[in-house]
Specification:
Distance between the termini of chain A: 21 Å
Strand content of chain A: 15-25%
Helix content of chain A: 25-40%
Radius of gyration of chain A: 14 Å
Number of helices of chain A: 3
Oligomer: homodimer
Largest sheet of chain A: 5 strands, antiparallel
Shape of chain A: globular
């Protein structure tokens, strides 16, 4: 971590909306609204999730747990896909994807499989921003 | 965790070789030898990685870090894919997959994409078993 401005890869920026910044993590929302798909981008030069310091890992999984529980409680999600892949964009970014047995890709993974086109409205993005602010604020 | 025998889903059993048991985790190797692909199956009824107790999460990521470093040091792997998905087999299993920019699926993910047929010999499986025993033994 450093105090200089943290640059997010252009491809991640292009594909997602900014939601919140929390404990040196940028939280973003995949622009495709078909499946609730959040990204956690820690401000680090490390590229592997498991190489992060333990405390940083636990911050991320605690936030991901709250994201997942929110999706299950409010969006009908049945299963969370939690993954750090990085084959295309090496910058570390952790996917927290809410899946449902009736979603268009089920049971396939979201990566590399085209989703029906669907975007979020400005109001929906603002709602996600408020939700993430609340979830992150609830983490002790 | 319980002291009763722990049952692994038949589909996981069918697709992977047993390597080692460590701290209430079953460590297995995907049978396809094209890409080094390990599974960590914690002995738990929870289905979400982020719902595990913190100590259990950190045990798993520490082991995954050692697996990943081994793959990078000895198998030419460039990137680790660390993922808990569970859309097909709900029983919690964490994938630790060693990827290389010259492997047949790169940069696509391994899930849902067919790999060329390739198996491990008995000697290779025994080598993996010895490797995992060493790696797990090295975790303080």
């Amino acid at each position: 971590m450093s105090s200089k401005p943290f640059d997010i890869d252009d491809r991640l920026l292009a594909d997602s909306h900014a939601l919140h910044t929390w404990r040196h993590c940028q939280i973003r929302l995949n622009k495709n609204a078909t499946i609730p798909w959040l990204l956690i981008i820690p401000e680090t030069d490390l590229i592997e999730f498991c190489d992060l310091p333990a405390e940083h890992q636990l911050n991320i999984t605690l936030l991901a747990q709250m994201m997942g529980q929110y999706m299950k409680d409010h969006l009908g999600v049945e299963k969370i896909n939690f993954a750090a892949i990085g084959n295309v964009v090496q910058q570390l970014h952790i996917h927290v994807v809410g899946r449902h047995s009736a979603d268009p890709l089920w049971p396939d993974v979201v990566w590399g499989n085209p989703l029906p086109e669907a975007g979020y409205s400005k109001a929906e993005i603002a709602q996600w921003q408020a939700t993430l602010k609340t979830l992150a604020g609830d983490v002790a």
